[in-house]
Amino acid sequence: MLSKESYITDSDVIGFKNYLINLIKYNITINHSYIVERQNTDFPSEYAGRRFNITTLESAFKNYSWNRESYEQNKSKLDNISKALKTNDEQNLYDACLACLEWGAGGTGIALYTRNKTWIDEKINQGININKLLDDAHKQMSSNQPDLDSFTSDQHRMNSGFTKIYALRYDDFIIYDSRVAAALGLLVVKYCKSNNLNEIPENLKFHYAHKYPNGGGIDKRNPCIGEFQFPKLNNDSRKHAESNIKANWLLGDVVSSAGKFWGTNDSSERLRALEAALFMVGYSVITHESEVTVKSSTESYSQNDTESNNGVNRVANADRLWGVLQGEWPENEVWLTIEKIQQLIPKGTENIDNYGSYNFAMLTLLSTNRRKFIVYEDKAVEQPINEEVAKTNRNNGIWRHHSNARVKRLLNAEE
Fold first, then answer.
1. Rounded to an integer, what distance in angstroms lies between the CA atom of residue 406 and that of residue 386?
2. Percentage of the chain exceeding pLDDT 90
3. What angle do CA 13, 25, 257 make, to 5 degrees?
4. DSSP alpha helices (H): ranges in 195-308?
5. Would you give the distance in Å from CA 299 to the centre of its chain?
6. 188, 202, 241, 298: least CB-packed within 10 angstroms?
């Protein structure tokens, strides 16, 4: 069973904690950089397509940007949301949860918002008190010996949306989303290399989540490299809760030991500041060489799939949908029906709201002559989809006629 005492006294955890404290107190360089995607709503427009350099954790914090707004602008919004989340009034709490999800997702049309809202609505329809639901989940996660069995069922929920709700409702709780997870992974690898470790210590194996570039390519939030391998979240509430708890313990210890830094006034504000720095570091953890690979991959797609300028954009949508699907694919299921895939990446995913664009993106994703993502159980279904996607005057919705057909990811294929 997970134990706070055994975790924070573990020699590897103490070593990494001291490593982070030194990065903060002595402004030690981490020399991290990445290319900001041209199509993004995170950074101000002038950063699009340019390299973003992070010399230290403090510089990451000072250059924080989300929804194209600064740390102070976001903090003002989050202070109001946090205050609202701490209410006992059920309706006000519900509204605050939705406001938190909208902020975290970047809009109400994103799956992160819609799926979590649906889950909350279902609980309310079952007569469940949301205050009690959140408090019971937090009681387990704040325990010195948390029992995470309730996160293996539908009783409690943890993902990159709910971690924000918990973090803003309760003190000493870190937002553990794909960016913070990627940043922790990156820094763990740097720590291991600086200490001549050949593998990641068990207690530093934080789970990470997928995030693929808009134009296709490799996972930009995957911190694994060589012998340094981390486990995947795979949309698993229990795994997410486990890593979030470990991050709470670790980073809580860091801020209490580091003292005042970066102009912050108290431990709660310092935790938010450190979280913001990690958030900026974790936008992308792929290397420069990997970025070149992404660029080449995107260019080859454009050359092969160009029928019109709109066509190139729609093909990119297929890669964006696939990136989301990779993270949503149930861990214990090899085969999925096309209908199930549509449920996992519905219209509106990645802001693909146009019906025609979504249909063509799905058609492209499900084809095997335009993409090499999947393998069909019934090859007779594969042929008409491949034939249709190659046509100029095509039926983009033909894939809907094969909703019961089953496919698996190529990475699970035998050939």
1. 16
2. 67
3. 50
4. 237-258, 267-281, 288-305
5. 25
6. 202
